[in-house]
Amino acid sequence: MNGDEISVRVIIEGRVQMVWFRGWTIEQAHSRGLRGWVRNRRDGAVEALFTGPRPAVEEMIAACRQGPPAARVAKISRFPAEDGGGRDFRPLPTA
Q1: 18, 63, 66, 69 - which has most CB atoms within 10 Å?
Q2: Contact assessment for residue 10 and residue 25, using Cβ atoms and an 8 Å cutoff
Q3: d(CA 95, CA 12)
């Protein structure tokens, strides 16, 4: 991670599983040039790590407030992260 980048972990709650949220997130992150990952959580939420330029990360988090058409986002919690997210943006197994 370079000095112009940030890394943020988010937990997205609401109707966010079985509505193509992970696939949508991967497409949106790729279109913004972000690195990181997305996964379903056993508690019904979706968790993601976004790493990249601050404006692109903030734009991605804002987009997650809406999500794909079938999603209904109730809450997004965000946390600073140390993990640089790897070289690309990818799905991870449910945790």
Answers
A1: 63
A2: no
A3: 14
Segments making up each domain of the chain, as ranges:
5-10+22-91
Which of 2, 9, 15, 22 is labelled catalytic? 22
Active-site annotation holds for 2: no
Catalytic residue among 2, 15, 35, 40: 40
Concerning whether 39 is annotated as a catalytic residue, the answer is no
pTM (whole model) above 0.85: yes
Right CATH for 5-10+22-91 from 3.30.70.1450, 3.40.50.1450, 3.30.70.100, 3.40.50.2000: 3.30.70.100
Each residue of 22-45: pLDDT tens digit? 999 999 999 999 999 999 999 999
pLDDT in tens, 52-91: 999 999 999 999 999 999 999 999 999 999 878 889 999 9
